[in-house]
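Changelog-adjacent note: as of this version, every example in the card shows the full chain rather than a window. The one below runs 66 residues end to end.
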Amino acid sequence: MPKLKTKSGAKKRFKVTGTGKVLYAQAGKRHGMIKRTNKQIRNLRGTAVLFKTDGDNIKRFFLPHA
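Full-length structure tokens:
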């Protein structure tokens, strides 16, 4: 059997917590901040947790060793 490789794109974008939840950085803060309201910018700070089913798919297909 060949080894299962982790998708390197997913490795950079997601982090699995100790309890098995998948964290991701929120989209919409790379450029174009002038268009966005201060409230939008404030609410996009930090990381968020994926829904359980989406997180399970990420771990199954892209992060097999997580």
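Structural remarks: The mean pLDDT is 95.
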